[in-house]
Amino acid sequence: MTHTEPKGMSWGLERRLQFIDFRLRWEGRINRTDLTEYFGLSTPQASLDIAKYSELAPKNLLYDRRSKTYISTQDFRPLYTRSSAKRFLAELLTTKMGVMEASSSFIGTAPEMDLAPSPWRTIDEQTVEAMAKAIRGKQAIEVRYQSMSSSEPSERWLSPHALGYDGFRWHVRAYCHKRQRFGDFVLARILHIGDARPSDIKSCTDEQWHTVVTLKLVPNPLLPEANRKVIELDYGMENGQVDLDCRQAFLFYTLRRLGLHSQDPLDPQAQQIVLKNRFEIQPYIDAAITG
């Protein structure tokens, strides 16, 4: 249970209070030096910020005179969602990957962590910049694209309207004027960016992008009951099931990440979850693959 987030403060003050909240939760302590070094504040201002936090959440911290540090109490309840476990783990991950500089994270002393290695997909910065500009400006853009279905790259005009990430690769969702339909185009396969022109393609007509399908995931019924209970805990299932809302355009990618893209039965120890409503959503899967 968290407190109600305070409203009506300046952005700077609110961010500093979030920092205090974050450090108290994840490191169990905060002092004025933490604030002065991170934000470049004066010591009196850091004292005022800690006093303000103490006013908003008096049961969250105590002053330890021996260490001259404020420590979190056993009754600590986060004041901000910025202090969530999801955000803490996200900052650990992004700093490890080099996406976020450690100095930008609220984490002071990070626990040791690592991640399973994966080859980084090459992305040309100018391609990303051009696509973002085309989306923002509602433009069509000429590209040279290397598809999997052809041995040679081809020239085509794309009218992009969104970016997407399938867990492994970045795509641009766009209307292909050559094929006269919407599709996903892997950014790394765009070999050249050409001219741009205004586009009259409306993103609202991309049905697969705007159609949301609910995946009903359950433990593999072939697993022993004790194992099924563990899987329910792993996926946060309620009553033995968890619902996952997914854009139709991402259906195949999502099922592939979950190991559910094939209908062939696998060893239940290898495929520990199954798609309960596969028959119901199979037409959406087929359309996404062929579309």
Describe this structure in words.
A hairpin with a 4-residue loop joins β6 (170-176) and β7 (181-186). The longest helix is centred in the N-terminal third of the chain and has 17 residues, at 11-27. α1 (11-27) packs across α3 (43-56). With 291 residues, the chain is an alpha+beta fold. The chain has nine helices and eleven strands. The protein is globular. The chain has three domains: 11-104, Arc Repressor Mutant, subunit A (Orthogonal Bundle); 125-205; 211-290, no CATH class. A five-stranded antiparallel sheet has the order 7-6-5-4-8. Strands 1-3-2 form a three-stranded antiparallel sheet. 34% of the residues lie in helices and 23% in strands.
The coarse silhouette is globular
Please report the number of helical segments. 9
Average pLDDT, rounded to a whole number, is 92
CATH class of the largest domain: Mainly Alpha
The termini sit apart by 45 Å
**Class derived from helix and strand content:** alpha+beta
Architecture of the largest domain, according to CATH? Orthogonal Bundle
Number of strand segments:
11
- How can the largest sheet be summarized? 5 strands, antiparallel
- How many structural domains does the protein architecture include? 3
Strand-helix topology:
Elements: H1 11-27, E1 29-30, H2 32-39, H3 43-56, E2 61-64, E3 69-72, H4 85-97, H5 125-137, E4 139-145, E5 154-165, E6 170-176, E7 181-186, E8 190-198, H6 207-210, E9 212-219, H7 225-234, E10 242-247, H8 251-257, E11 273-275, H9 278-290
Antiparallel strand pairs: 1-3, 2-3, 4-5, 4-8, 5-6, 6-7, 9-10, 9-11
Helix pairs in contact: 1-3, 2-3
